[in-house]
Write a structure and sequence with these properties.
The protein is of the alpha+beta class. It has two domains: about 1-80, GMP Synthetase, Chain A, domain 3 (2-Layer Sandwich); about 90-175, SH3 type barrels (Roll). The protein has six helices and nine strands; from the N terminus they run H-E-E-H-H-E-H-E-E-E-E-E-H-H-E. The strands form two sheets. A six-stranded mixed beta sheet has the order 8-4-5-6-7-9. Strand 4 and strand 5 form a beta hairpin. Helix 1 (about 1-20) crosses helix 2 (about 50-65). The longest helix has 18 residues, at about 1-20. The mean pLDDT is about 85. InterPro entries: Ribosome_maturation_RimP, RimP_C, RimP_N, RimP_N_sf. Belongs to the RimP family. Required for maturation of 30S ribosomal subunits. Keywords: Cytoplasm, Ribosome biogenesis. One of its GO terms (cellular component) is cytosol.
Length: about 180
């Protein structure tokens, strides 16, 4: 029943989240005693602050209340943003990790750490050990953001910014593409 219910509620919740200017990252409905626990994880290009979580929570709650016939029971709503330990599983996750340090475990080869630059729907450019490297998402088994306690080197950010704006040629920086 919760999976069927989640399937009916997800478009309603997604519309409310999108209308608030954010993305629905994940959605789940669980039975919690006599109530339903509705878990909503939202994300945005600039992250999601506490005030925005509260705003989204009100919007989702209003949407659920308007569609109470679908839910047909009492519910508890939990709205949150993804944690830093969330894997980079979609192109938008990589886009939102721009300039962040990430640990990449490729499907083949040794894991490495690099700073995310420009990303597309198929791959991201990373600065790894001073060299630009194209990483196709299809070749990544797992990638997560590394927590940093100091500011990234300014020269790294300048190089990634110049690369993204097309001001430098990939051949100049030693960029290489991951094997296919």
């Amino acid at each position: 029943m919760p999976n069927e219910l989640a399937g009916r509620l997800e478009p309603i919740v997604a519309q409310a989240v999108t209308a608030a200017g954010f993305d629905l990252d994940s959605f789940e409905v669980q039975q919690a005693g006599r109530r339903q626990l509705v878990k909503v994880v939202v994300d945005g290009d600039d992250g999601v602050g506490l005030d925005e979580v509260a705003e989204i929570s009100r919007a989702v709650s209003a949407a659920l209340d308007e569609n109470e016939h679908v839910l047909a029971s009492a519910y508890t709503l939990e709205v949150t943003s993804p944690g830093l330990d969330r894997p980079l599983a979609r192109p938008r996750h990589w886009r939102r990790a721009k300039f962040r340090l990430v640990k990449v475990t490729p499907k083949e080869g040794a894991e490495f750490i690099g700073r995310v630059g420009h990303s597309t729907e198929e791959s991201a450019r990373l600065l790894v050990d001073g060299k630009l490297r194209d990483v196709a998402y299809a070749h990544v088994a797992k990638a997560v953001v590394e927590i940093e306690f100091k500011q990234p080197p300014v020269e790294d950010l300048k190089l990634l910014e110049a690369d993204a704006s097309g001001m430098i040629d990939a051949a100049e920086t030693g960029a290489k593409e991951e094997p296919k």
